[in-house]
Write a structure and sequence with these properties.
The protein is built from 19 helices and eleven strands. With 365 residues, the chain is α/β, with parallel strands linked by helices. The structure holds S-adenosylmethionine.
Length: 365
């Protein structure tokens, strides 16, 4: 018990307490008759301590680890999802705090709502206000998505945001967890339900198709969300990006030369192959046109100066996720290279391209 306490970084008293209340019981005995932990007990202890660290009370932890439908892998996925949610929340709080610091420095009054907003900030509640300035329907990408919807009459758009890719002429229901994003949906757009992908409030096969555009990488548990989409619809269409084939990150000068931190974000994300398998999808490339109308992260591959604009970056979650230090360094580096002509020297060949494959993929199942 002493050795396990040392390994786990808890006191022997804590282990005794867990034993007494039946939370983690050492189920073996050493030859000398001391109680000992088997591999399964250690696994359970790890789950208990991880849920405790996430702030769950002992009774809630007991319910979680005793859940008969969850094996060790399911717990790992659940813990991972909870941690990612927490990290996104921390990122969103940092972004909200940075905005308030900047506002105070400029002497702009900060309302009580804005001050309290920092506490409950979720990523899109924090950055979503900047979204409509540059994020809108790109007709060529929309055409590819809408073609993949086939003859579907009823569509659920998961993580629908402001509704940029909701198809006309079909019965659409949007799902969007961020109040800020819901509030910015244009008048007359499809009805929108406040919910998250991981728990869709719909019956099995309620829709002909479930679609999700540029959102899966924000979900706490992407696999659970994809399974939910599969459950509620007979067809699934997802616009995401390739995490398996890193070649495009080297082709995209922004991630290659200025923002290597992007690779760390990708490392946290489930593989394209894994996602495709989860929903039984094929993947097709989605080229980004040189004059892309939707200000997504890859949009300005032929117009580098756009990345120097703060309002452009604010509508791209990548910058919040890499943090202000990396953002500042990347923007300064790009600014210098644009001024010195180094960017043009390195990327002159892009001027001849009308569209680029920068890793965007449409999963169609
Ligand atoms: C980049 S925006 C994309 C919005 C829209 N699909 C579009 O293409 O314009 C990502 C959206 O995913 C939403 N989102 C974040 N977590 C989510 C979750 N767990 N379930 C569903 N949507 C989520 C965000 O609130 C945000 O509106």
């Amino acid at each position: 018990m002493g050795r396990v306490a040392e390994l786990a970084g808890v006191s022997v008293r804590t282990l005794h307490h867990y034993d007494r209340i039946g939370l983690v019981r050492p189920s073996a005995r050493t030859p000398a008759g001391y109680r000992a932990y088997r591999a399964g007990d250690m696994e359970r202890l790890r789950e208990v301590l991880a849920y405790r660290r996430l702030g769950f009370g002992l009774r809630e932890v007991a319910e979680l680890v005793d859940d008969p439908s969850a094996d060790a892998l399911a717990h790992l996925h659940r813990l991972r999802g909870l941690l990612r949610e927490r990290r996104d929340l921390a990122d969103a709080m940092v972004a909200a705090i940075d905005r308030e610091i900047a506002a105070r420095a400029e002497g702009v009054p900060v309302t009580p709502e804005e001050q309290l907003g920092v506490l409950g900030a979720r990523l899109y509640d924090a950055i979503g206000g900047a979204y409509p300035a540059t994020r809108r329907t790109e007709p060529r990408i929309a055409a590819q998505i809408w073609e993949a919807l086939g003859d579907a009459r009823t569509v659920v758009n998961v993580g629908g945001g402001t509704g940029s890719y909701e198809p006309p002429g079909r019965e659409v229901t949007a799902v969007e967890p961020s109040a800020v994003m819901r509030a910015q949906r244009p008048a007359g757009s499809a009805p929108c339900v406040a919910a998250a992908a991981e728990r869709l409030p719909f019956a099995d096969h309620a829709f002909d198709v479930a679609m999700a555009v540029s959102t899966v990488h924000h979900w706490g548990d992407p696999m659970a969300g994809l399974r939910e989409m599969r459950r509620v619809a007979r067809r699934v269409v997802v616009l995401t990006f390739d995490t398996d084939e890193p070649g495009w990150q080297d082709r995209f000068w922004l991630t290659r030369d200025y923002l290597p931190e992007f690779a760390d974000l990708l490392a946290d994300f489930p593989s394209l192959g894994g996602m495709a398998e989860a929903i039984g999808a094929r993947a097709e490339p989605v080229p980004v046109p040189w004059d892309c109308a939707d200000g997504l992260f890859e949009a300005y591959w032929r117009s580098p100066g756009a990345y120097l604009e703060e309002h452009v970056r604010m509508a791209m979650s990548v910058w919040t996720k890499v943090g202000p230090e990396a953002e500042r360094r990347a923007v300064h580096g790009l600014e210098d290279d644009l001024r010195s002509g180094r960017w043009a020297e390195r990327n002159g060949d892009l001027a001849a391209l009308d569209a680029a494959d920068l890793g965007l993929r449409l999963l169609v199942a």
